[in-house]
Amino acid sequence: MAASAVKVSNVSLGATEQDIKEFFSFSGEIECIDMHSDTERSQIAYIRFKDSQGAETAKCLSGATIVDQSVIIELAPDHQFPVTATVYSNPNENSNGSGGAESSSAIQKAEDVVSSMLAKGFCLGKDTVKKAKAFDEKHQLTSTASSKVASLDQKIGLSGKISAGTTAVNEKVKEMDEKLKVSEAAKAAFTAAEQSVSNAGSAIMKNRYVLTGTSWVTGAFGRVTKVAGEVGQKTKEKVAAEEEGANKASGYVPIS
Fold first, then answer.
1. Alpha helices in 70-157, H assignment, sequence order
2. CA-CA distance, 111 to 32, in Å (whole number)?
3. Contact, 79 vs 7, CB < 8 A?
4. Dist CA 10 CA 41 (whole Å)
Protein backbone atom coordinates (compact mmCIF):
# COMPACT_ATOMS: atom_id res chain seq x y z
CA MET A 1 0.00 0.00 0.00
CA ALA A 2 1.39 3.43 -0.97
CA ALA A 3 2.30 5.77 1.87
CA SER A 4 -0.17 8.53 2.56
CA ALA A 5 1.82 10.14 5.39
CA VAL A 6 4.98 12.23 5.55
CA LYS A 7 7.50 13.01 8.24
CA VAL A 8 8.66 16.63 8.50
CA SER A 9 11.95 17.09 10.35
CA ASN A 10 13.72 20.24 11.56
CA VAL A 11 10.47 22.10 12.13
CA SER A 12 11.04 25.43 13.86
CA LEU A 13 10.05 25.68 17.51
CA GLY A 14 8.11 28.75 16.47
CA ALA A 15 5.94 26.78 14.06
CA THR A 16 2.43 25.92 15.18
CA GLU A 17 0.16 23.14 14.01
CA GLN A 18 -1.80 25.77 12.09
CA ASP A 19 1.40 26.75 10.23
CA ILE A 20 1.93 23.11 9.28
CA LYS A 21 -1.68 22.68 8.18
CA GLU A 22 -1.60 25.85 6.06
CA PHE A 23 1.66 24.85 4.37
CA PHE A 24 0.69 21.27 3.52
CA SER A 25 -2.94 21.96 2.63
CA PHE A 26 -1.75 22.81 -0.89
CA SER A 27 -0.54 19.23 -1.40
CA GLY A 28 -3.85 17.53 -0.68
CA GLU A 29 -6.60 17.05 1.85
CA ILE A 30 -5.17 16.46 5.32
CA GLU A 31 -6.64 13.80 7.60
CA CYS A 32 -4.57 14.38 10.72
CA ILE A 33 -1.40 15.98 12.12
CA ASP A 34 0.88 14.72 14.89
CA MET A 35 3.49 17.14 16.26
CA HIS A 36 5.98 16.73 19.07
CA SER A 37 9.38 17.96 20.23
CA ASP A 38 12.52 16.52 18.68
CA THR A 39 15.61 18.46 19.80
CA GLU A 40 16.25 21.65 21.73
CA ARG A 41 15.96 23.55 18.45
CA SER A 42 13.33 21.70 16.46
CA GLN A 43 10.12 19.70 16.32
CA ILE A 44 8.89 16.81 14.19
CA ALA A 45 5.54 16.78 12.44
CA TYR A 46 3.71 13.88 10.81
CA ILE A 47 0.93 14.61 8.33
CA ARG A 48 -1.45 12.03 6.92
CA PHE A 49 -3.31 12.82 3.71
CA LYS A 50 -6.46 11.29 2.26
CA ASP A 51 -4.43 9.71 -0.53
CA SER A 52 -0.85 8.80 -1.38
CA GLN A 53 -0.59 11.48 -4.06
CA GLY A 54 -0.94 14.14 -1.39
CA ALA A 55 2.01 12.63 0.49
CA GLU A 56 4.18 12.31 -2.63
CA THR A 57 3.40 15.87 -3.65
CA ALA A 58 4.32 17.06 -0.15
CA LYS A 59 7.64 15.23 -0.43
CA CYS A 60 8.52 17.44 -3.42
CA LEU A 61 8.48 20.43 -1.03
CA SER A 62 11.45 19.18 1.00
CA GLY A 63 13.90 22.03 1.53
CA ALA A 64 11.18 24.67 1.88
CA THR A 65 11.20 27.12 4.77
CA ILE A 66 8.43 26.98 7.36
CA VAL A 67 8.51 29.99 9.69
CA ASP A 68 12.31 30.33 9.95
CA GLN A 69 13.84 26.91 9.29
CA SER A 70 14.35 24.73 6.23
CA VAL A 71 12.53 21.42 6.67
CA ILE A 72 13.21 17.88 5.49
CA ILE A 73 10.21 15.97 4.18
CA GLU A 74 10.09 12.22 3.59
CA LEU A 75 7.44 9.54 3.31
CA ALA A 76 6.42 7.88 6.58
CA PRO A 77 4.51 4.69 5.66
CA ASP A 78 4.98 3.07 9.08
CA HIS A 79 4.09 5.91 11.40
CA GLN A 80 1.27 5.13 13.81
CA PHE A 81 -0.77 8.21 14.58
CA PRO A 82 -1.69 8.40 18.29
CA VAL A 83 -5.21 9.08 19.45
CA THR A 84 -4.01 12.52 20.57
CA ALA A 85 -3.23 13.55 16.97
CA THR A 86 -5.44 16.32 15.64
CA VAL A 87 -7.98 14.90 13.18
CA TYR A 88 -9.13 17.16 10.35
CA SER A 89 -11.17 14.65 8.36
CA ASN A 90 -12.42 11.12 8.85
CA PRO A 91 -10.84 8.60 6.44
CA ASN A 92 -13.92 6.39 6.79
CA GLU A 93 -16.01 9.05 5.05
CA ASN A 94 -14.24 8.54 1.69
CA SER A 95 -16.91 6.25 0.34
CA ASN A 96 -19.73 8.59 1.41
CA GLY A 97 -20.13 12.34 1.32
CA SER A 98 -16.47 13.30 0.89
CA GLY A 99 -15.89 11.46 -2.38
CA GLY A 100 -15.97 14.77 -4.25
CA ALA A 101 -13.22 16.19 -2.04
CA GLU A 102 -11.03 13.18 -2.66
CA SER A 103 -11.48 13.54 -6.40
CA SER A 104 -10.54 17.21 -6.14
CA SER A 105 -7.31 16.26 -4.38
CA ALA A 106 -6.55 13.58 -6.95
CA ILE A 107 -6.45 16.03 -9.84
CA GLN A 108 -3.94 18.32 -8.14
CA LYS A 109 -0.64 18.39 -10.05
CA ALA A 110 2.65 19.00 -8.26
CA GLU A 111 3.49 21.77 -10.73
CA ASP A 112 0.23 23.56 -9.93
CA VAL A 113 0.81 23.10 -6.19
CA VAL A 114 4.25 24.71 -6.43
CA SER A 115 2.96 27.56 -8.61
CA SER A 116 0.15 28.29 -6.14
CA MET A 117 2.49 28.27 -3.15
CA LEU A 118 4.99 30.57 -4.86
CA ALA A 119 2.15 32.94 -5.70
CA LYS A 120 1.15 32.96 -2.01
CA GLY A 121 4.68 33.91 -1.01
CA PHE A 122 5.93 30.63 0.46
CA CYS A 123 9.71 30.17 0.43
CA LEU A 124 10.40 26.90 -1.39
CA GLY A 125 13.64 25.05 -2.12
CA LYS A 126 15.64 25.97 -5.23
CA ASP A 127 14.99 22.59 -6.89
CA THR A 128 11.30 22.34 -5.93
CA VAL A 129 10.01 23.20 -9.41
CA LYS A 130 12.31 20.59 -10.96
CA LYS A 131 11.13 17.91 -8.50
CA ALA A 132 7.49 18.80 -9.15
CA LYS A 133 7.94 18.53 -12.92
CA ALA A 134 9.72 15.18 -12.52
CA PHE A 135 6.87 13.93 -10.33
CA ASP A 136 4.24 14.97 -12.89
CA GLU A 137 6.18 13.43 -15.77
CA LYS A 138 6.64 10.19 -13.85
CA HIS A 139 2.90 9.95 -13.29
CA GLN A 140 2.09 11.32 -16.77
CA LEU A 141 0.29 14.33 -15.35
CA THR A 142 -0.18 17.66 -17.14
CA SER A 143 -0.36 20.85 -15.10
CA THR A 144 -3.48 22.95 -15.35
CA ALA A 145 -1.42 25.87 -16.59
CA SER A 146 0.19 23.78 -19.33
CA SER A 147 -3.19 22.45 -20.41
CA LYS A 148 -4.64 25.97 -20.60
CA VAL A 149 -1.73 27.25 -22.65
CA ALA A 150 -1.88 24.29 -25.03
CA SER A 151 -5.63 24.81 -25.43
CA LEU A 152 -5.12 28.54 -26.05
CA ASP A 153 -2.41 27.83 -28.59
CA GLN A 154 -4.70 25.42 -30.42
CA LYS A 155 -7.60 27.91 -30.43
CA ILE A 156 -5.82 31.02 -31.66
CA GLY A 157 -2.78 29.47 -33.33
CA LEU A 158 -0.34 31.61 -31.33
CA SER A 159 2.69 29.50 -32.29
CA GLY A 160 1.82 29.92 -35.93
CA LYS A 161 1.37 33.66 -35.51
CA ILE A 162 4.77 33.99 -33.89
CA SER A 163 6.35 32.06 -36.76
CA ALA A 164 4.52 34.21 -39.30
CA GLY A 165 5.62 37.35 -37.49
CA THR A 166 9.29 36.40 -37.50
CA THR A 167 9.06 35.50 -41.21
CA ALA A 168 7.55 38.91 -41.91
CA VAL A 169 10.49 40.61 -40.19
CA ASN A 170 12.94 38.75 -42.45
CA GLU A 171 10.98 39.69 -45.56
CA LYS A 172 10.94 43.35 -44.54
CA VAL A 173 14.70 43.28 -44.04
CA LYS A 174 15.23 41.95 -47.58
CA GLU A 175 12.80 44.45 -49.04
CA MET A 176 14.54 47.36 -47.34
CA ASP A 177 17.93 46.07 -48.48
CA GLU A 178 16.84 46.36 -52.09
CA LYS A 179 15.11 49.73 -51.82
CA LEU A 180 17.22 51.81 -49.43
CA LYS A 181 20.76 50.45 -49.71
CA VAL A 182 21.24 50.81 -45.99
CA SER A 183 20.65 54.55 -45.63
CA GLU A 184 20.18 56.07 -42.19
CA ALA A 185 16.47 55.34 -42.50
CA ALA A 186 17.29 51.68 -43.10
CA LYS A 187 19.47 51.56 -39.99
CA ALA A 188 16.60 52.94 -37.90
CA ALA A 189 14.16 50.44 -39.42
CA PHE A 190 16.51 47.54 -38.71
CA THR A 191 16.90 48.68 -35.12
CA ALA A 192 13.13 49.03 -34.66
CA ALA A 193 12.51 45.56 -36.11
CA GLU A 194 15.15 44.05 -33.84
CA GLN A 195 13.68 45.82 -30.79
CA SER A 196 10.14 44.66 -31.65
CA VAL A 197 11.23 41.04 -31.85
CA SER A 198 13.22 41.38 -28.63
CA ASN A 199 10.19 42.88 -26.87
CA ALA A 200 8.02 40.01 -28.11
CA GLY A 201 10.50 37.54 -26.67
CA SER A 202 10.59 39.37 -23.34
CA ALA A 203 6.79 39.40 -23.14
CA ILE A 204 6.71 35.65 -23.66
CA MET A 205 9.31 35.02 -20.95
CA LYS A 206 7.34 37.20 -18.48
CA ASN A 207 4.22 35.10 -19.05
CA ARG A 208 3.29 33.11 -15.92
CA TYR A 209 3.05 29.89 -17.89
CA VAL A 210 6.81 29.86 -18.41
CA LEU A 211 7.18 29.26 -14.68
CA THR A 212 5.40 25.96 -15.11
CA GLY A 213 7.78 24.78 -17.79
CA THR A 214 5.44 24.88 -20.78
CA SER A 215 7.54 23.52 -23.61
CA TRP A 216 5.81 25.26 -26.52
CA VAL A 217 6.38 28.70 -24.97
CA THR A 218 10.09 27.95 -24.65
CA GLY A 219 10.16 26.87 -28.29
CA ALA A 220 8.33 30.00 -29.39
CA PHE A 221 10.76 32.22 -27.51
CA GLY A 222 13.63 30.33 -29.11
CA ARG A 223 12.30 31.10 -32.57
CA VAL A 224 11.81 34.78 -31.70
CA THR A 225 15.31 35.03 -30.21
CA LYS A 226 16.84 33.41 -33.30
CA VAL A 227 15.16 35.89 -35.63
CA ALA A 228 16.17 38.80 -33.41
CA GLY A 229 19.76 37.62 -33.67
CA GLU A 230 19.51 37.31 -37.44
CA VAL A 231 18.05 40.82 -37.77
CA GLY A 232 20.81 42.24 -35.58
CA GLN A 233 23.51 40.47 -37.59
CA LYS A 234 22.12 41.76 -40.87
CA THR A 235 22.04 45.27 -39.44
CA LYS A 236 25.71 45.09 -38.42
CA GLU A 237 26.81 43.63 -41.76
CA LYS A 238 24.97 46.24 -43.81
CA VAL A 239 26.17 49.18 -41.71
CA ALA A 240 29.74 47.88 -41.93
CA ALA A 241 29.43 47.56 -45.71
CA GLU A 242 28.06 51.11 -45.98
CA GLU A 243 30.91 52.54 -43.91
CA GLU A 244 33.50 50.65 -45.94
CA GLY A 245 32.01 52.01 -49.17
CA ALA A 246 32.05 55.57 -47.80
CA ASN A 247 35.68 55.22 -46.77
CA LYS A 248 36.74 54.00 -50.20
CA ALA A 249 34.87 56.85 -51.88
CA SER A 250 36.74 59.41 -49.78
CA GLY A 251 40.10 57.75 -50.44
CA TYR A 252 40.58 56.63 -46.87
CA VAL A 253 42.54 53.41 -46.52
CA PRO A 254 42.57 51.76 -43.04
CA ILE A 255 46.00 50.87 -41.63
CA SER A 256 46.09 47.19 -40.61
1. 99-106, 110-119, 128-138, 144-156
2. 24
3. yes
4. 8
